[in-house]
C-alpha cells in the first residue's frame, strides 16, 4: 500500500495522511453498523459479520470516492463531514425508531410520517433525545473527529485518479464478497439469501444484512418490486410440546359452551358446503398475461384450495357490523371486575382461545392493514399504498355494494398515517376523524374512546343495515399518570391494583374502551338492534410500550402485566379477538390457532358475501380448512404445532405426528404466501381480477 501511495501521490509526505483520512471515512460506516448491532441486538453470526464488514466498507469506499472529488481542500473537508454526519443521523433515527416502535422502518415510510410524528410527539422527541444523548455522542464521534483532524491540515487534498479507481475497485470487490456471504448462508430457518431476495422485509433484514445494505435493497425493491426466489429450510429440529407451552384465554367461567364442530344441528338442514370462490379462470389469466409477476400470482392463487361454506355462512346476512381496531389492546387488560363489559363480550360470543396479532412492523398502520385487507403486510407503508388502488375484497367495499351505510371513525388527527387518502377507498362512504368532522372531543392526548362513540353513534344507528369501523386511540402509550390523559382520567379505578404505576397506567388507559363498549351496547339495546349487530374487537398490535427498553423502560412491564415472561417469537403476540352479538345464545369456543388475517374472510362468510377465499391469506375460522397462522419472520402455527423460524425448530402439539416433509412443505408454502399475498396491494392485483366490477 505504501509503495502504491508513494508512486501515485504527488506529495509522498502526505500519503500517510491521505491513507488515514480515507480509512477514517471508510471505517466510519463499519463503526455505525457495528454500534447499531450492539445497541439493538443484531445478529453476530459468522455470515452476518462478514456481510456487515463487506457491505459497510463497500459503501464507505464510495463515500470516500465522493468526498475527495474536489480541487478545494476545504470543499473535500466539508463534503466528507456532511456525508459522515448525515449517515450518522440516519443511523440514529433508525435506532430511536427501533427503541420507540420495536422495529426498523423503511425510509420512505419514515419520510411520509415525519410531519405527523413531529406534530404529535414533539414533547416525546425531546425526552427521547435527552435519554439517548450517550448514543448520539457515540454516533457523532467520526464526523466531529474528522472536522478536528482535517482542521489541523486546512482541509483534505483531492484524491488522485488512481486512488479513485482503487476505491471503486475495492467497493465492487467488497460488495461481491458480501453477496457471496449472503449466498453461502442459503439454508436454515430464514436465510440471508431469502432476506436478500423474495423474503425481504426491512425490519428483518437490518439485524442480519446491516442498515446500509437493507436500505439499498429497500429502495431498489420500492422501484422494481421484490423478486421471487427459492427457499430451503434445511434439516429442521422437531421437538414435542411441553405441558405449559400454550396459554389459553380464561374461559373457565364460560357456561354452556359449544365447540364450533358441534354448534349446528344438521339432521334436518342441508348445509351448503360448496367452495367460497368466484368464477375466476386463473390459468387462462396467467396464459394471457405478459407481466411475469402478475402471471406468477395468477398461477399461485389458482393453486390455492378455497375454503368451504359452512353452517355459519350468511348467519349475519343483512345485519349490522361494528369493527373496532383497538390501540395497543391486550387480553391481559380484560377482567371480570375491572372491565365487566369487555369480559362479557369476550366470554359470551365467539370465544377465541388461541388468537394472535403478529408484529408486522409499521406499528398501528400494518395492524390495521392486516385486519382490513386480510393479506400479508409486506412493508411498513403498505396501508398508504392502498390509496388509489382496487381494494375489492374489503368488508367495507363488499357491504357497501350490498347497500350498507358504511362509515369509518378515528379519534386522532385525520391525516395521521394518511388515512384521509386510504380509508374511504377501503369501502367507507366517509372517514371522519379529528380535524375533518369529529367535533366535540375534549382536545387532549390521547383522546377519549368514550367521547368518540358518544359523538358518532347517532350518525348511523338509524341507518340500517350499517357497517362502521373504528380505530381507537385511548390505549396509546406511553403509560404514565402525568403524560397520558386517559391514564390520569381513570387513575382512581386502578389505584389498588398490585402493579407498578406503568402497568396501572396502561390498564387505566384501556378502561376508556371498556366505558365506550358499555355505552355502545346500551345504545344498541335501547334501539332494539343488539341482536341484529355483530361487534368485533381486535388489537392493532400488542402493547409494546410496556416492553423493556421501549420508552426508556428499565423493567419488562409486559411480563409484569402477563404475570410471566413471554416467549418473544409467539406468546408476545397472543391477543384477544372479540366477536359478540346479542343473537349468540351461547358461547362458541374456537380453539384453533387464529390471527388477524382470519378476520376478513370470517366476516365475509358470516355476512353472506360472495368472495374468493383464494385471494385472502387468512381463512374463515368456521370452515373445515386447516388453520395456519403466519408470522413476519416466517414462523408459523398450525393444528400440528409451531415452527420457530429463528431457531429452525418445530414443536409438535400434544399427540400430533409430524415429519420433516410436513414441516418443510408448510414452511415453503408460508414463504410463497408471504411472497404472493404481499404483492397484492403493490401490484394493484385486484384490479387485474375485478377491474370492471
Write a brief structural summary:
By secondary structure, the chain is of the alpha/beta class. 45% of the residues lie in helices and 10% in strands.
List the main descriptive attributes of the protein structure presented here.
10% strand, 693 residues, nine-stranded mixed sheet, single chain, globular, five-stranded mixed sheet, disordered N terminus, alpha/beta
What features would you describe in this structure?
This protein is an alpha/beta fold and 693 residues long. 45% of the residues lie in helices and 10% in strands. Helix 3 packs antiparallel against helix 4, helix 3 runs antiparallel to helix 8 and helix 10 packs antiparallel against helix 11. The N terminus is likely disordered.
Cα radius of gyration in angstroms: 27 Å
Query: Approximately how much beta-strand content do the residues carry?
Result: 5-15%
Beta strand count: 17
Helical segment count:
25
Distance between the termini: 68 Å
Helix % is 40-55%
Instruction: Return residue spans where pLDDT drops below 50 for at least 5 consecutive residues.
Output: 1-15, 243-253, 261-267
Which structural class best describes the helix and strand composition?
alpha/beta
Would you tell me the overall average pLDDT? Answer: 86
Strand order of the largest sheet: 2-12-4-11-9-3-8-6-7
Question: Major β-sheet, in short?
Answer: 9 strands, mixed
Shape: globular
